[in-house]
Amino acid sequence: MQNVIIAIQAEYNHDEKMIPQATSLVTFTQLGGGIIGIAIAGTVFANKLSSSLFEIAPDFPAEVAEGLRQSVTIIYTLPSDQ
User: Fold this and answer.
1) Between the CA of residue 50 and those of 15, 19, 58, what are the distances in Å?
2) Are 68 and 74 contacting, i.e. CB atoms less than 8 angstroms apart?
3) For the packed helices 19-56 and 62-70, what is the interaxial angle rounded to 10 degrees?
4) What residues form the membrane-spanning segments (predicted)?
5) pTM of the complete model
């Protein structure tokens, strides 16, 4: 990602007042894109887990499956045989 910032700074080399604004805009959009990407990936994962849970593990007890739908941290409370 450093290459993009260097390219922006080289592009605005003739107008040095614009370099900080351009660099800030690139950094902001990179961070925003990462945040949006993580949010989308988390939503897809949660929905896919809910819809495929019984296909993946049909012998799971219903309360464990419901707990997994609520929060995946329930995995840490399960006995080792599940």
Assistant:
1) 53, 47, 13
2) yes
3) 170
4) 25-46
5) 0.61
SS (H, E, C) the chain: CHHHHHHHHHHCCCCHHHHHHHHHHHHHHHHHHHHHHHHHHHHHHHHHHHHHHHHHCCCCCHHHHHHHHHCHHHHHHCCCCC
Handedness of CA 67, 73, 75, 77 (dihedral sign): negative
Cα–Cα distance between 64 and 9 in angstroms, integer? 53
Tokens of 13: 């080399």
CB contact at 8 A, 64 and 74: yes
Can you give the residue ranges of every domain in the chain?
2-77
Q: Give residue 62's pLDDT.
A: 76
Least confident of 5-19, 32-46, 59-73: 59-73
